[in-house]
Amino acid sequence: MIRIEKVTKKFGSFVAVDDLSVTIERGEFFGFLGPNGAGKTTTIKMIAGLFTPTSGRILLDGHDTVKEPLEAKKALAYIPDQPFLYDKLTGREFLYFVGGLYKMEKDRLKEEINRLIGHFEIGEWVDKRTEDYSQGMRQRITIAAGLLHDPKAIVIDEPMVGLDPRSARIVKDTLKQKSREGTAVFMSTHSLQIAEELCDRIGIIKNGRLIFADTLDKLQAYKQQYDGKFESVFLELTK
Given the DSSP bridges, would you call strands 29-33 and 153-157 parallel, antiparallel or unpaired? Predict the structure, then answer.
């Protein structure tokens, strides 16, 4: 579903991502971890089509993000770590705006918006301007907007930033359910606990190179070589 094939990204002489290859299949929940500056955000922006790879290619549902950008983006929901909303729009207006970008049929769009308002428990706020939203409410509206068109892949960066426990539970359950329904989920996070809780497979990047990529079961076995803690494995791999 998401295929990253020998991708390198350079900014001048600086190599931000170095010969990265990884595939996330339909229904797989992939956690993407690494220290600050490792190349996580650069990778995500290339998947989303915001950066162009220096070499290699990225395919979304079989569509090259450079050669077929519109077809690739139709398959994708990109949810950044800092949600961007139009402050003078209400949450409901923003959802209609996003649905219009995907050319969703009007009746279907209305039905999906009403369903997502209930699912994310945002009915009390959805008709207020987004400039008045908390970080957590902005995050919920952004995720709801990303799910409107029933994407085949979700790329999400630090999804729990600013969320209270109730909001975090809703987001976790939503992402896990989407993966069960066959959506490929690519999640970047600094939270080892969230990665272990949600992911089927975990990748760790350091200095632009993928240094670990394996299933959660394999990770559990690997942890036993240390003190049984994922934190110890992560620190050893990235030191």
Answer: unpaired
Element (H, E) at 129: none
Bridge partners for 59 per DSSP: 3, 64
Q: At what angle do helices 106-119 and 91-101 cross, to 10 degrees?
A: 140
**32-47 pLDDT per residue, tens:** 999 999 999 999 999 9
| Pairing assessment for the beta strands 201-206 and 63-64 based on DSSP bridges | unpaired
Cβ(127)–Cβ(116) below 8 Å: no
Alpha helix locations (H) across the chain? 40-47, 69-74, 91-101, 106-119, 135-147, 165-180, 192-198, 216-223, 230-238
* Residue 166 burial (CB count, 10 A): 10
Q: What angle do CA 216, 220, 226 make, to 5 degrees?
A: 140
Cα distances (angstroms) measured from residue 14 to each of 147, 204, 207: 35, 20, 10
How much is the pTM? 0.93
Closest CA to 209 of 80, 65, 31, 43: 43
Which DSSP symbol is given to 27? T
Cβ atoms of residues 19 and 211 within 8 Å: no
* Residue-wise pLDDT tens digits, 151-164: 999 999 988 877 88
